[in-house]
Amino acid sequence: MSVELCRRRLLHRGTVNRDQVLDQLRVCSVEDQLFDVVGKNKAKLTVNHVSCAVGMLWQFQKEKPQLLRTVDLIKSHPQFLTLRVLAENKIALMDDFVLVDMLYSFLRLNVDPHDSLVQHLVSEAWLRLDRFSMASLSKLANCLSDQQLHHSPLMGHITNIVDQKLSTIDDARILTTLMLGVSSLASPRLRDALINRADLLLDNTDASNYNTPRRVVQFLRNIRQSHRPLLEKCNKILLCNIPTLDAENIGIIMGLYQALQFNNCDFRLAVKQRLTELLDSSNDPFSFTRLFFCLAPMASQEVRERLQNTALLLVDELNAQQALAVAEALEDIQSRNLIIQRHLHVYKPVEVARITQALLLLQYQNPELFTKLRTILLNVFPYEVTMLTRVLSMLPCSRIEECVISRVDAVVTQCSLSDLSTISFAVAKWVRNDPSYRHNTPSRYVRLLQTMNRCGHERLQTADRLDLLLDELKYISGEWFEEILVEDTMGTLQRMINQINWTNVPDLTLLLTRIGHLCPPLMDHIASVVIKDIDKIHHSAIYAILLPFSVLNYDPVQADELYDVCIQRVIPHISSLDPHLLVFLAYCLALADCFPGEIIKEIFTIDFLGKLDAQLDTLPDVLNMRTRLRLMDLNRAVCLQCPEFQVPWFHDRYCQQLQKKGGGSGSSAQQQIHKMLGDILDGMNRVRVAVVTPYFYTIDFECILDRNLQPLPYSEPSALQMSDGEKVHWGGGSVENIREALPPGAQRVAVDFLDSKTFCKNSHRMKGEALMRKRHLEILGYRVVQVPHYEWNSMELSTQDAWKEYLRKKIFKEGSS
């Protein structure tokens, strides 16, 4: 409500008997003038006067930049106390609108939620709740959220009213405010209804009002549901507003997107441009901190250096929260320029945990600082135990305090599966670091691990809702989960197989890919659900859905139909998919030996690659590198398997750079195989190690057999050259040249050792990536000999003679068949 609206609303009806006090309030333009009117007319002030005065005080503050607001000065003014006392005494006289408006304004002016005035206003609002308009109800919900009363009975009452009257809400601003308020208490049915209503009302929302779509995104974050169609609709409105947004609002939206794992190329490019425009005007600690946090991770090296130099100049002016934001941004860009010791005394343990993690990931060395951090981290609340336990385990320490073990033990029965996994990682590290570990595992750790194992099994056995289970398992990983719970997890998923539907399939398939366990009944059921409801599934989810089928190399019963419907679902939306996601999808399809012409031709165009290149500059470093790698893999697959597309190979320089960064000696098994190959091939000059093929595959060992299967020595220096990295490169670049380099009837043999990562974790089924590599090496003219780890390390091959005979059969007998 603007000051002018407040004035108009509270004008006296008549022009003859004018309210002089109200007239005097209306003409005030600053706080001091208003307080002067209040002081001179204490005895005359009515409910309307108090309401107008308090509303105007908040409006004066709202119209000022954050740095220029003077809320503390207002709160300490004697006449503000007068307004508070009068308001509390006149609560019964307030109409519904004034009551809620007064509560809202006082909270915005930082009156303590525990103040008797606020308590009485809330109590009176509860008594009148059922007769409130939806506008007043939404403002009250906002007030309760400000007071952290998300789970209160009063918010529950509001949730019930919203459920009953949802169809009557036609204002998107009112609806989205209510959505945020009730998000913690809404049932799944009400959540879906709220999403559908918001989707409908957004179509008629003013495109310049960015707060409404922002609240929708925040609601989706609160309920942890990435509803792609609604997200994209919100993103479209937010994109229109980027040129007018400041760094603070941009940061809020980016944080919400990150929590929902929503990446949008156009949004990130627009944000990068807008933040760059704000560089010159962001010179104070408040605006600069927000700019630094948002821009640094996606900025060029030149801009990053500029940001860091400005941060160093402002470091003494940063408050505790600003220093924390800068420290976390520095972690993202791998810089160690700033230290935040001067604010340690004001940080909460959870904030200290974030600082500690940033410093450790930056490999910052300061034992004295880490000792201080450790001391603060030990003072925790129960709900903080999991996060702080993980960070404590990262700090250098030879022995963990008994109080830490007891606190973990006290909360472990209440932990989710994800929390249990996090704690298990910390306990494993404490066990290894304990001085007595070399003799035996200390009993205190044994008891804790036994309790965790029992809790994990019980949680899986009692789980009855797939959606909740998937939420707990979303980020779970580590040895404890794989050794203790993975079998139970797969059993639980099979028990809930009838709960699989089109809404939870993407989360389930991502989980199955990460676990790496192949379960044909689950995969077949997923395929049938996807085929049946493909029209309901958002096109951006297709990559996640196909991933386990390609990665785990499993063809369901309806494999052809599955891939066909998924490809047809994506093709109409190719141009709207984020570039990096389209690359991932195409690579996923290539693993399955599938190359849809529409997708391949779209990716290998100048326009698309230019858009991808622009997007890469805005992505986090890890995602950037992964996208570049997948584009190279796809480029290689298309060149080798689909020459009819006439896609050029343009990754020579990239692959050469990867080789320079790589290196390292082979595993003990590979070194063992190398020595034995020299024996069975009659000399080390008949075997080459780490051979780099055209299109830059690196094979473990290579040998050449003539038409009589006799090994040939590598005597011609023109055929093979040693690189600086001690890797062997072929001469010539085309497949034709490769084949011509061999004597008539001879064959190149590639010998690859396949470690456990090459196979599904619960079977000897080779994964899709290894299978594609084999296809490509065969196209390059190799006969591929694979040495699986489970055969090489089996009891049958426990002597030198047995190993040699195994290799001899693989190379010579299989070659003659």
From TrEMBL:
<dbReference type="InterPro" id="IPR013579">
    <property type="entry name" value="FAST_2"/>
</dbReference>
<keyword id="KW-0496">Mitochondrion</keyword>
<dbReference type="InterPro" id="IPR010622">
    <property type="entry name" value="FAST_Leu-rich"/>
</dbReference>
<dbReference type="Pfam" id="PF06743">
    <property type="entry name" value="FAST_1"/>
</dbReference>
<dbReference type="GO" id="GO:0044528">
    <property type="term" value="P:regulation of mitochondrial mRNA stability"/>
</dbReference>
<dbReference type="InterPro" id="IPR050870">
    <property type="entry name" value="FAST_kinase"/>
</dbReference>
<dbReference type="GO" id="GO:0003723">
    <property type="term" value="F:RNA binding"/>
</dbReference>
<dbReference type="Pfam" id="PF08368">
    <property type="entry name" value="FAST_2"/>
</dbReference>
<dbReference type="GO" id="GO:0005759">
    <property type="term" value="C:mitochondrial matrix"/>
</dbReference>
<feature type="domain" description="RAP">
    <location>
        <begin position="749"/>
        <end position="809"/>
    </location>
</feature>
<dbReference type="GO" id="GO:0000963">
    <property type="term" value="P:mitochondrial RNA processing"/>
</dbReference>
<protein>
    <submittedName>
        <fullName>FAST kinase domains 1</fullName>
    </submittedName>
</protein>
<dbReference type="GO" id="GO:0035770">
    <property type="term" value="C:ribonucleoprotein granule"/>
</dbReference>
<dbReference type="InterPro" id="IPR013584">
    <property type="entry name" value="RAP"/>
</dbReference>
<dbReference type="Pfam" id="PF08373">
    <property type="entry name" value="RAP"/>
</dbReference>
